[in-house]
Design a protein that fits this description.
This protein is mainly α. The protein has 2 domains: 1-165, fold of a uncharacterized protein from magnetospirillum magneticum, CATH 1.10.3540; 168-238, Winged helix-like DNA-binding domain superfamily/Winged helix DNA-binding domain (Arc Repressor Mutant, subunit A), CATH 1.10.10.10. 56% of the residues lie in helices and 6% in strands. It contains 14 helices and 4 strands. The protein has helices spanning 15-26, 31-36, 45-59, 66-75, 80-91, 96-100, 102-106, 116-126, 133-149, 168-180, 186-189, 192-195, 201-213, 231-238; strands at 153-154, 160-161, 218-222, 225-229. A two-stranded antiparallel ribbon has the order 1-2. The chain has a two-stranded antiparallel sheet with strand order 3-4. It is globular, with a radius of gyration of 18 Å.
Length: 241
């Protein structure tokens, strides 16, 4: 059953704070220790508590959870630009308002505006009467900021749609997220994670093939049957390599 949770009425995907937490975790620090030591540099204890709460709601930080272990593994592989994409893709699993905004963003042509009004209207479409005008507007602005942090929108005011430069890492991660959430075959290619890449089918196929050559996934296609699996990657991640 889908969990009906969002932090976007109050925050964004908080990529800067996430990066600070993940940086310390890569150095071997325990997540409880990290959160207690205020690595996000919040000026008040109240703000620190709220920040930690929202970060944990969105990303979990459960070192025994396979999906998070996958996230942390890929985080160690990619550069900073791609880390922001990983953050967005991972957050889609845990925030319904962010997930529901995918079509608004990816269906906006590159170079055109992504108006806050469109994101606002999208929230009202899915949740008529649920939020006040002020809360809905704030959530729409936060959602736009999250996509901006991930490199899909540029500009402080105009919110111009741009296309992120994906590689086999981010495509493999999107497929892996879908796989770990129970999708198989063509359903993986139609998942929200793949849709959020905003790539056409040929671009995705090329990057899947590239990822398979590097053993990030196993891919077979023939007779209109698609097989995508992650047996080798699962062994690597579960063994902590």
């Amino acid at each position: 059953m889908k969990q009906n949770k969002t932090i976007h009425t109050s925050r964004t995907i908080m990529f800067a704070e996430l990066s600070q937490v993940m940086s310390h975790s890569m150095e071997g620090a325990d997540f409880d220790e990290i959160f207690n030591s205020n690595v996000t540099n919040k000026l008040s204890n109240t703000n620190l508590i709220k920040t930690n709460q929202y970060l944990k709601q969105l990303y979990g930080f459960d070192k025994d959870n396979l999906v998070f272990k996958c996230f942390k593994h890929y985080w160690s592989l990619v550069d900073n630009e791609k880390k922001s994409i990983l953050a967005l893709l991972y957050a889609l699993s845990n925030d319904f308002l962010l997930e529901e905004s995918i079509d608004v963003v990816v269906n906006t042509k590159v170079g055109e505006r992504v108006p806050i009004e469109n994101l606002d209207a999208n929230i009202e479409k899915y949740h008529p009467g649920r939020y006040s005008d002020n809360t809905r507007r704030s959530a729409a602005q936060n959602i736009a900021s999250s996509w901006k942090q991930a490199g899909y929108i540029q500009g402080k005011v105009k919110n111009i749609r741009v296309q992120q430069r994906h590689d086999y890492y981010t495509v493999a991660f999107a497929l892996f997220m879908s796989y770990l959430h129970g999708d198989r075959g063509e359903y993986i290619l139609r998942s929200k994670w793949v849709k959020a890449l905003a790539l056409d089918s040929e671009e995705i196929k090329e990057l899947i093939i590239e990822a398979s050559k590097r053993d990030f996934l196993q891919y077979q296609y023939g007779g209109n049957v698609t097989v995508i699996s992650f047996e080798n990657q699962l062994k690597t991640i579960q063994n902590g390599k």
